[in-house]
């Protein structure tokens, strides 16, 4: 009943903010777009190279494969963590909170480093297994694609926990009680009531994780040891190690357009509130 | 109507609650409560919020374990039987429908849980949809239904597997007045048709009086009185029950003498004669009379009536009835409710007689 | 009234999850802790170095200063964006959503690169200003501490927008109407009603941003051009460029403890729901 | 009581709404509504949800601009005056207290906005706190108060700056029955003490009848009837108003003949005589009688009464009254509400006479 009337006064108030948003977000991106068409010379040359260069192509395919595996791994783990967070005892909640929030805020690097300490040839796992006599040569756990997937999954879990936990939290406790009262077992309730009611959060989490994984750079660079080059890293290599700024810019533009398309798709299925927990 | 749902069906259960107690930390939600729920009866648990009525329902349902005491159903101890094995129907406050399932799927859920054949499920769901008047809405999601329709789905879902007991937790609190009355009639009809034992929780005393075969009144975790609607309304055992079930006038009496079937006491120098509903061993007491049992007149009514003088302070119009606010000579305030049509208007500030039949007044202990 | 009873069955169900959380989060960190005490030799040597090394000290102080400036800059901007997002017209909301979500998901690198395109000596701003004749020499906008602050602020804004927007969203519209009905001007309502009702979100955002900024690494590395070394970058340098794994591990441990202390402090003031939007 | 708040104070405003219309997209929330609100009256806007009553209140408050029409206060056009310059008091559904301010600060807010001196603010807030019975709670935050206390803070905050109009949007919908009745009396008292014009929105018809000097009934964005509580209850101008204000029995009449002050029609071969409340030019009509105006007896009452034969189908006990469900010979269902005390029990399935005084029945157009 209470209509929000947008008065002209309100629009005047908002104008400087909109100007700021444009300057902070739109203009820098336009700079990248310009570079992609002008470096080293004006034209579509960089986009043509992007379509034909077999190195670039193979990097794109590897990126896609890793991102899909990571998304699946993240969703399963994040669902479990969100479940403990939302429905566990108060001690379990605190523990889950700690596990989710602390790594979320500690730099990517410090955590990737933690994983190296676990997985590298000189790391905990190999040291333990060797000293226990289980293996004689260290296992190749880090600095390859497996390392990338473990590291990325670990990094992305918190981003998926939030939307899933939010969906779980919005479930009416009485709906679950009602199912129990009708004689349904806990397993049945979980699969036929609880999980379907969290689909919104799951879809949101899947899109967030996939998009984020696409733009992933730091963890693969460290854990993959340069052998699992992914798209975002390619941008970095092209810009800072070779002087090929134009191709780097072109890759950036393609990445942004792809992510934009995914977002547009997503808007049709779920509300933004689901995405941000 | 299917054979198995005839009134008096053996499927209706009787439940005995014996010395049930429940504490949450230091808070005593229920105190040593014993109550027998008869086979096929419509029992209402009535009380203000926090009185323990919902806790008791949750213990009956098996969602909450009692701290002390036992529950016995048809002679079997069910205190430790989990909710999913009790198979009671339950209608929750706010309906608690499955939002991702259609009307049909919601109603079919308890049957599928029981592994009924799909033909059986289809037939029973069809019957139930018809019985609660939801034909044409089978494929809709709950969000597309009105409040009353959602309520009907909740009832259908709770009754479709022919439970021996149906528990209802303030099912009408979200409905507006007209719809609430319609749904009350619906529930009453379903109770008569199914013959199932209904246990109904509400804080609305007129709903309790209108629907139930018996009413159990709760306060502060204690069961204060159980009885037929007429009994609890007209012969409340204490002041809380008397006041919670409707407005009541309380006249402090100086001395009370018991006298066979009646009791007599003094109020403002007049002798008030009352029914002797409770035995008061020489204690102070109050005479209690409901506003609709009193009437206003220019001269005192004498035949089997008590009468006192009052001054009219105001009136509130309620359509069917008008409530007069009065004050006795000693300052006690009184309310008298009379059918609007029955009287010529009574002028404010006039002095009048307020009378009531002897059998309509009763004694209550002073201060409790 | 509906008590959640933790049955022993539930605890059994949760046990593997708790085990997983421990393996994924606690053990890797313990590996880092071990390194900090054992490399290159067993003892507290690395922590002693950490206390006395003037390079490490100055890096810590610079980190703290930059993080505080960034936190302030982020809060102001994020508040404005959240306001448009929550209370703007539907077009404004979509625009704000796009501006918040897209950069949030595009890699750190691509965005830092966008800023370089704006701020570098060959970037948009300097090119425009030079061609307009306003300046003759390019301004030093990137590859210094100013660049670090701009880049970090930009990166961290979305993290602050979510909790602030969440606090704004939970304000009852009728409370604002009530204030208007009593004759209060829009400015007065904003400062005496609206802003105080978002304090919870603001505190949450400040802590998130500050903690995140502390662990910041990638943006400063690129925009700062190696001159504004911050703590997390120091970890990286110590581990990957020199063989000093022990000091890197020690710094990591100190960082984690500091962040843990901040989190503990925060728990006393606000609910986790406020932190994650 | 401060001098400035005496009844009949010049501060009370009169408002004329002229042809107010409001559309939201294609939805007509209000259709060409004209209504005069008198100085110092207690006007209730009554209607089901979505009837436009709240939209109209929001237009009065200045929070929503009407699509068409004008608002005139004390002869001045205020259609385009923003809410903050109208200075009406308003009590919102859910109270809308400032959660970060104490009771005292909440009540002081409108005074501070007006730049009153701090001594003045302190004095007025103190008076208001006393008047609404919140002494001892001044330093508490709203979250620490009970529902009734929050309601009192909202009233105090809305009245402290002595507004010329107080708007109340379903202020009691969140309160339970006993508290609601107490707060109703409080609002009635505040209206009498302040003499301010009160405009009250509710969907509860008994609240509307009990509180108001006039009631305006809304449905589907239209104003159906305005009048004193007695007028709208006993002489509703159409079927919606009749049914919304309380239960009503409708008897279809075959032919209606107008006859001076009365009208007569045939129902089941008996002539029914009614008050001629509306003029029906030879159309079909129904006789409308409220359940509490009918009574049941073994033989027909003849003196100034209509009487028809019915079969008793059931009874519902409501404490003060018992409602009997009956059916006429032609199958029309009837409800008769009688004081529980007044009758000996009436057996189900018995045939009885239902009678009512001629002046209690009225004519309504058929189907509308």
From TrEMBL, chains A, C:
Membrane-spanning parts: 12-37, 63-86, 98-118, 146-168, 189-218, 245-265
Protein topology in the membrane: Multi-pass membrane protein
The ABC transmembrane type-1 domain, residue ranges: 60-266
Alphabetical list of InterPro entries matching this protein: MetI-like, MetI-like_sf
Coiled-coil ranges from the UniProt annotation: none
GO biological process: transmembrane transport
GO cellular component: plasma membrane
Primary location class: membrane
Alphabetical keyword list: Cell membrane, Membrane, Transmembrane, Transmembrane helix, Transport
Compartment list: Cell membrane
Similarity comment text for this entry: Belongs to the binding-protein-dependent transport system permease family. CysTW subfamily.
Entries under PANTHER family matching the protein: ABC TRANSPORTER PERMEASE PROTEIN (PTHR42929:SF5), INNER MEMBRANE ABC TRANSPORTER PERMEASE PROTEIN YDCU-RELATED-RELATED (PTHR42929)
The protein, known as: Putative spermidine/putrescine transport system permease protein
Organism per entry: Phyllobacterium trifolii
Automatic annotation (TrEMBL), chains B, D:
GO terms, biological process: quaternary ammonium group transport
Record-linked Pfam families: ABC_tran, TOBE_2
InterPro entries to which the protein is assigned, alphabetical: AAA+_ATPase, ABC_SmlMolc_Importer, ABC_transporter-like_ATP-bd, ABC_transporter-like_CS, Mo/tungstate-bd_C_term_dom, P-loop_NTPase, Transp-assoc_OB_typ2
GO CC annotations on file: ATP-binding cassette (ABC) transporter complex
GO molecular function: ATP binding; ATP hydrolysis activity; transmembrane transporter activity
Keywords from the UniProt entry: ATP-binding, Nucleotide-binding, Transport
SUPFAM superfamilies: MOP-like, P-loop containing nucleoside triphosphate hydrolases
Residue stretches making up the ABC transporter domain: 15-245
Keyword set includes Signal: no
Similarity comment: Belongs to the ABC transporter superfamily.
Protein name listed in UniProt: Putative spermidine/putrescine transport system ATP-binding protein
């Amino acid at each position: 009943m209470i209509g929000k009337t947008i008065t002209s006064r309100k629009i005047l108030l908002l104008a400087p903010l909109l100007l700021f948003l444009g300057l902070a977000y739109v203009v820098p991106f336009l700079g990248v777009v310009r570079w992609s068409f002008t470096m080293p010379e004006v034209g579509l040359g960089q986009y043509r190279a992007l379509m034909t260069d077999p190195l670039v192509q193979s990097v794109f395919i590897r990126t896609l494969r890793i991102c899909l595996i990571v998304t699946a791994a993240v969703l399963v783990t994040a669902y479990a963590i969100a479940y403990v967070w939302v429905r566990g005892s108060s001690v379990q909640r605190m523990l889950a909170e700690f596990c989710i929030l602390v790594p979320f805020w500690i730099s990517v690097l410090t955590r990737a480093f933690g994983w190296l300490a676990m997985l590298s040839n000189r790391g905990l796992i190999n040291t333990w297994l060797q000293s226990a006599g289980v293996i004689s040569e260290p296992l190749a756990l880090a600095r390859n694609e497996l390392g990338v997937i473990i590291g990325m999954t670990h990094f992305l879990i918190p981003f998926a926990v939030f939307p899933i936990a939010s969906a779980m939290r919005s479930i009416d406790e009485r709906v679950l009680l009602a199912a129990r009262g009708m004689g349904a077992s806990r397993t049945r309730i979980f699969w036929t009531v609880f999980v379907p009611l969290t689909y919104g959060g799951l879809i949101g989490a899947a899109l967030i994780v996939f998009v984020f994984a696409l733009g992933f750079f730091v963890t693969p660079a460290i854990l993959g040891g340069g052998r699992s080059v992914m798209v975002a890293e390619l941008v970095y290599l092209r810009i800072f190690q070779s002087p090929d700024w134009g191709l780097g810019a072109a890759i950036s533009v393609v990445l942004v357009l792809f992510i934009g398309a995914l977002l547009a798709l997503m808007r049709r299925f779920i509300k933004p509130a689901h995405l941000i927990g | 109507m299917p054979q198995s749902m005839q009134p008096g069906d053996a499927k209706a259960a009787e439940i005995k609650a014996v010395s049930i107690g429940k504490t949450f930390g230091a808070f005593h939600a229920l105190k040593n409560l014993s109550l027998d729920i008869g086979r096929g009866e419509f029992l209402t648990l009535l009380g203000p919020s926090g009185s323990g009525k919902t806790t008791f329902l949750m213990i009956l349902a098996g969602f909450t374990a009692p701290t002390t005491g036992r529950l016995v159903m048809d002679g079997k101890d069910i205190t430790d039987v989990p909710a999913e094995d009790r198979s009671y129907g339950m209608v929750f406050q706010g309906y608690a429908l499955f939002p991702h399932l259609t009307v049909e799927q919601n109603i079919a859920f308890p049957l599928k849980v029981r592994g009924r054949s799909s033909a059986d499920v289809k037939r029973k769901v069809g019957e139930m949809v018809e019985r609660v008047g939801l034909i044409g809405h089978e494929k809709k999601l709950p969000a597309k239904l009105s409040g009353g329709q959602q309520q009907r789905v909740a009832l259908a879902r709770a009754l479709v597997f022919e439970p021996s007991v149906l528990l209802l937790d303030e099912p009408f609190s979200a409905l507006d007045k007209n719809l609430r009355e319609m749904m009350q009639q619906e529930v009453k009809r379903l109770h008569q048709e199914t013959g199932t034992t209904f246990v109904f929780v509400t804080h609305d005393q007129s709903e309790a009086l209108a629907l139930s075969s018996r009413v159990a009144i709760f306060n502060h975790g204690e069961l204060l009185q159980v009885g037929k609607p007429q009994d609890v309304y007209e012969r409340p055992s204490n002041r809380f029950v008397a006041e919670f079930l409707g407005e009541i006038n309380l006249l402090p009496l100086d001395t009370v003498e018991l006298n066979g079937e009646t009791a007599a006491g003094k109020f403002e120098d007049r002798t008030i004669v009352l029914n002797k509903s409770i035995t008061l061993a020489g204690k102070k007491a109050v005479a209690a009379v409901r506003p609709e049992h009193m009437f206003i007149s220019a001269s005192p009514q004498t035949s089997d009536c008590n009468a006192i003088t009052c001054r009219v302070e105001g009136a509130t119009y309620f359509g069917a009835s008008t409530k007069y606010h009065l004050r006795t000579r000693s300052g006690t305030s009184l309310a008298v409710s009379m059918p609007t049509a029955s009287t010529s208007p009574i002028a404010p500030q006039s002095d009048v007689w307020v009378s009531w039949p002897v059998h309509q007044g009763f004694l209550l202990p002073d201060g409790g």
